[in-house]
């Protein structure tokens, strides 16, 4: 079963502030554990939304609306993701609970979602 651990954006990630060296090491150790367990498929961080483009389909049949970032609502943005292949939702939850605070500023939030296969 594929699950995505979606790391939600924060004010700090949107400002391009990198995590501390300690957090970078903790995340590296976490990713190493995922790889050693054979469950990590992919892990990537995303650039801030100031580098992004949003395409909105507001009216059926008409051209979509294109908006360039940055986008204000950080609670709706994603800073990165880890894709894991596990045997159950419980196993995915266990891996998610082991992730260090991905923002490191007390702003971290992870959303766990199953991927259609």
Summarize the structure.
This protein has 117 residues and is an alpha+beta fold. Helices cover 26% and strands 29% of the residues.
What does this structure look like?
The chain has a single domain, classed as Dimeric alpha+beta barrel (Alpha-Beta Plaits), CATH 3.30.70. Helix content is 26%, strand content 29%. It has helices at 11-14, 21-36, 89-98; strands at 2-8, 40-45, 53-56, 65-68, 78-85, 110-114. A hairpin with an 8-residue loop joins strand 3 (53-56) and strand 4. The mean pLDDT is 93.
Poorly predicted sequence stretches spanning 5 or more consecutive residues:
none
Radius of gyration equals 16 Å
CATH architecture label: 2-Layer Sandwich
Main sheet specs = 4 strands, antiparallel
**Main β-sheet, spatial strand arrangement:** 2-5-1-6
Give the number of domains: 1
Task: Indicate the structural class.
Answer: alpha+beta
Roughly how much helix do the residues carry, as a percent range? Answer: 25-40%
CATH topology: Alpha-Beta Plaits
Query: What is the average per-residue confidence, as pLDDT, rounded to a whole number?
Result: 93
Instruction: Tell the overall outline.
Output: globular
* Tally of individual helices: 3
Residues in β-strands, percent: 25-35%
CATH C-level: Alpha Beta
CATH level-4 homologous superfamily: Dimeric alpha+beta barrel
* Cα-to-Cα separation, first versus last residue: 8 Å
Tell me the number of strands: 6
Secondary-structure element string: EHHEEEEHE
